[in-house]
Amino acid sequence: MKKLLIINKSQFGYETDTYKYCQYLRNDYQITYYCFDSGHQKIELTGVNIIYIASHGNYLTKAVRFFRSLYPLMARTNFSAVFIVNFDFCFIPTFFSRKTKYILDIRTGSVTPSKRKRFFKNFKTKINTLFFKNITIISEGLARKYKIQNFKVLPLGSDYMVMEPKSYSKLKLLYVGTFVNRNIYQTIEGLRLFIDEQGVDQSEIIYDIVGFGSPDDVNSIENTIKKAKLERVVRFHGRKNINELPQFLNYSNIGVCYVPVKAYYNFQPPTKTFEYIHSGLVCIATNTFENAKLINNDNGVLCESNSASFAKALGLVYQTRSQYNSTTIHNSLKSFTWFNISNNILSPYLNKVIND
């Protein structure tokens, strides 16, 4: 069996993409996953060897520990391919073994609001690309942004969730994801506007918010809930791991994909758009370039990244809620499943690289 090493700074199970690659490729590859132990609950996956590296200390100390432990692992194991999820200076392992086949995987460009920080983050990614012959990336637009000539698009997706047909009579909203630079409090303000404008009984609405962010991000959400007097409507849950999400997707019927409509988000297709739609949720998504390619009249509504536009989009969903069908929503993005992406895109590409 071919040996695949996945190197990722993110703790195993807390980044959906690589978790799903492992889940669907573990019968075809002997997979080792090398990552930091970030202190979260550990998630196991039969058939995958997970190696954790302690993450205490400053930036330099952690980096030295990470690469110093990686070298002997690669020296004693003849990996068929090494799949590295992009991070600062991730080109360093390419010096450990010249015979090994390396793949750089780019899941995101920098989306920080700071123009200076975006420049340096994207510059470091561009430097990384110079050391790799084989590159996978989430979208053609992002590849053009980095001026990468030879690449394989490895799109985002989600599992196709088999659930009972959904009813859309009662509005059960769900946001899952990071709070960092997302302004999620605006969706709460928009919900308040929607209730006031439509005169909807609050008992007919639930909004679950699941995710993580800085203390300031969390405070802005909790303070807005109180200010909008929506304590009985909006339920804040904090961080949940990947195995806890199906219960929220099963309960909800409207998914909120809310990222700022900014140029630096345009080529970042959010994973949650796929997860919501594959779970039969109507998706209210901000009008970025990638979201606009995914959202249509059958599966959702686009909005701008402000509270008034969100309220308008929610109002449109409310007015047309009887027209939605969960099976139609399911099927609208049926090619973007993790099974298909892993087995019909990534696996053939891995084999090509290994045999090249």
Count of DSSP H/I helices: 12
Number of self-contained structural domains: 2
Distance, first to last CA? 17 Å
Helix content: 25-40%
| Mean pLDDT level | 94
The radius of gyration computed from the alpha-carbon positions, rounded to a whole number of angstroms, is: 21 Å
User: Class of the largest domain in CATH?
Assistant: Alpha Beta
Q: Look at the helices and sheets and give the structural class.
A: alpha/beta
Q: Assembly type of the shown chains? A: single chain
CATH superfamily of the largest domain: Glycogen Phosphorylase B
At CATH level 3, the topology of the largest domain is Rossmann fold
Quick recap of the structure?
The protein has 356 residues and is of the alpha/beta class. The chain contains 12 helices and 13 strands.
Give a verbal description of the structure.
The structure is a single chain. It contains twelve helices and 13 strands. With 356 residues, the protein is α/β, with parallel strands linked by helices. The model has no long low-confidence stretch (mean pLDDT 94). The protein is globular, with a radius of gyration of 21 Å. It folds into two domains: 175 residues, Rossmann fold (3-Layer(aba) Sandwich); 161 residues, Glycogen Phosphorylase B (Rossmann fold, 3-Layer(aba) Sandwich), CATH 3.40.50. The two termini are 17 Å apart. Strand 1, helix 1 and strand 2 form a beta-alpha-beta unit. The relative contact order is 0.13. Strands 3-2-1-4-5-6-7 form a seven-stranded parallel beta sheet, sandwiched between helices. A six-stranded parallel beta sheet has the order 10-9-8-11-12-13, sandwiched between helices.
